């Protein structure tokens, strides 16, 4: 088979590496890819938003399967365009990708179908949001309605912070048009857990659990980022939690989307909060998480192409998902200053150490080749260093050991990814 992967970050590198392990993959393309993905795929200089060019390229190369990685092209309808060109595509169509594309839509869906989530109100007028906050309880959560690279959520401890948040989201448009509408949500306390799933429109298969670290600095301090590291599985995701979510959250979400005429095929990422009152949905994503994919996919035993094709064909119920009885930890190596301001073009050394290191993975998030053929930094999040181990503590030790193998100027990482493991 010829496979085309759309995207160019760490998630897409994890997908490409999983596809490369399949005996069915004869040729892999990636648009646009990066310096790490180039090891397993032919990178094509096409942007993820160039739908017609991607369609033309895939037709010309007689691509058998397209896998779409990022959220923006999914929300904008890339699957619809590629399917109209006669291509076989893995990912939700535009009318289903709204599950992530609009937080107001997803909250309304959960309310309508009694899927457990936080109480909320939606506003498209900043002044009305301000008036609501005058009588609200704090802390409270503000969410830009649209896509904001995983950064459009503000946790406000005081009324003053919340009023400033309304100004930054709705008036100053810190997240662009994503802030034209805003969801104001009850603040929930508990453990956060991420659960990825494959969906074929009717059936859902749950992958192993994971846990993300969004804040830039140790101790969950600093600004929200796209994710500074993950571990899998989460020790807090028990059988009791799994049973509850299967009955009240996972299948009900798939059924709700079908009932709304928005059949969902692809990946649903469930962001959960394990509260005292039970699991609640924090958010949905309509694609693999980044960096959750970097700890989940290395543990998956199945041939990813078999699973993806079952999702497209509606035969997912015939697949038994299997994962290694181990653990994985991913530590993100970023450029100092991320997520605000950082340098690019810094040479990265010692990447070759990963070539023969079993159980160690270096997923490129923001890299490129310079004019001399060196691999250099090309983003805020540069690399995702993943390692497996017999348990989470071993995987964490291995990941931090491997994070020390690589070097570039202004390298920055959190030192406490998975530290909660020690408290479990």
TrEMBL record:
Species the sequence originates in: Eisenbergiella massiliensis
GO molecular function terms attached to this record: ATP binding; metal ion binding; phosphoribosylamine-glycine ligase activity
Cofactor: Mg(2+); Mn(2+)
Alphabetical list of InterPro entries matching this protein: ATP-grasp, ATP_grasp_subdomain_1, PreATP-grasp_dom_sf, PRibGlycinamid_synth_ATP-grasp, PRibGlycinamide_synth, PRibGlycinamide_synth_C-dom, PRibGlycinamide_synth_C_sf, PRibGlycinamide_synth_CS
Key word Calcium present: no
Protein name, per record: Phosphoribosylamine--glycine ligase
EC number(s) recorded for this UniProt protein: 6.3.4.13
Name of the coding gene: purD
ATP-grasp domain: residues covered: 107-313
Pathway(s) this gene product operates in, as recorded in its UniProt entry: Purine metabolism; IMP biosynthesis via de novo pathway; N(1)-(5-phospho-D-ribosyl)glycinamide from 5-phospho-alpha-D-ribose 1-diphosphate: step 2/2
Catalyzed reaction equations: 5-phospho-beta-D-ribosylamine + glycine + ATP = N(1)-(5-phospho-beta-D-ribosyl)glycinamide + ADP + phosphate + H(+)
GO BP term, example: 'de novo' IMP biosynthetic process
Annotated keywords: ATP-binding, Ligase, Manganese, Metal-binding, Nucleotide-binding, Purine biosynthesis
Lineage: Bacteria, Bacillati, Bacillota, Clostridia, Lachnospirales
Family of the protein in this entry: Belongs to the GARS family.
Keyword Glycosyltransferase listed: no
Pfam families linked to this entry: GARS_A, GARS_C, GARS_N
Spans through the membrane: none
């Amino acid at each position: 088979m010829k496979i085309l992967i759309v995207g160019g970050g760490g998630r897409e590198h994890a997908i490409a590496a999983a596809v490369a392990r399949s005996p069915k993959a004869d040729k892999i393309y990636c648009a646009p890819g990066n310096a790490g993905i180039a090891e397993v795929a032919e990178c094509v200089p096409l942007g993820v938003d160039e739908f017609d060019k991607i369609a033309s390229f895939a037709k010309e190369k007689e691509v058998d399967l397209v896998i779409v990685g990022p959220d923006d092209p999914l929300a904008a309808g890339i699957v619809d365009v590629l399917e109209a060109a006669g291509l076989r595509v893995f990912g939700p169509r535009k009318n289903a990708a709204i599950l992530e594309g609009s937080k107001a839509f997803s909250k309304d869906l959960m309310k309508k179908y009694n899927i457990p989530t936080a109480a909320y109100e939606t506003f498209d007028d900043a002044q009305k949001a301000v008036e609501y906050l005058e009588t609200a309880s704090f802390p409270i959560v503000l969410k830009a309605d649209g896509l904001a690279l995983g950064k459009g959520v503000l946790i406000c401890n005081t009324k003053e912070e919340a009023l400033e948040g309304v100004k930054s989201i709705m008036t100053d448009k810190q997240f662009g048009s994503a802030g034209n509408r805003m969801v104001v949500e009850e603040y929930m306390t508990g453990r956060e857990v991420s659960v990825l799933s494959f969906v074929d429109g009717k059936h859902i298969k749950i992958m192993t659990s994971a846990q993300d670290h969004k804040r830039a600095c140790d101790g969950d301090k600093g600004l929200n980022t796209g994710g500074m590291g993950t571990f899998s599985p989460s020790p807090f995701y028990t059988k009791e939690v799994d049973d509850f979510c299967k009955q009240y959250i996972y299948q009900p979400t798939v059924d709700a989307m079908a009932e709304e005429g928005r059949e969902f095929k692809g990946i649903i990422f469930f962001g959960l909060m394990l509260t005292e009152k039970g699991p609640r949905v924090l958010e949905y994503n309509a694609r693999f998480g980044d960096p959750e994919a970097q700890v989940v996919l290395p543990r998956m035993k199945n041939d990813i192409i078999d699973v993806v094709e079952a999702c497209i064909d509606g035969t997912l119920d015939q697949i038994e998902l299997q994962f290694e009885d181990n653990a994985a930890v991913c530590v993100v190596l970023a450029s100092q200053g991320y997520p605000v301001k950082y340098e690019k073009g810094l040479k990265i050394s010692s990447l070759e150490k990963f070539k023969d290191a079993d159980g160690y993975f270096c997923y490129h998030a923001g890299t490129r080749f310079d004019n001399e053929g060196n691999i250099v930094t090309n983003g805020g999040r540069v690399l995702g260093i993943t390692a497996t181990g017999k348990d989470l503590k071993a995987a964490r030790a291995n990941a931090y050991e491997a994070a020390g193998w690589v070097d570039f100027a202004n390298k920055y990482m959190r030192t406490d990814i998975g530290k909660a493991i020690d408290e479990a």
